Amino acid sequence: MRRFLLFGTLLAISSTAQMVSLPDGQSEARSPNGLYVIRDVYDRTVPIPGPAHSLVLVDTRKGTSSTIHTFGRHVDILWSPATDSVAVNDHEESNYGTALVFFLPWKGRRVTLLDALARFLHAKRQAALLDNDHLYLTARKWVSDRELLCRLEGWGDQNPKGFTRYYIYEIGKGFRGYRAQGTSPEKRPGDIHDR
Question: In this structure, what DSSP letter does residue 54 have?
Answer without folding.
Answer: E
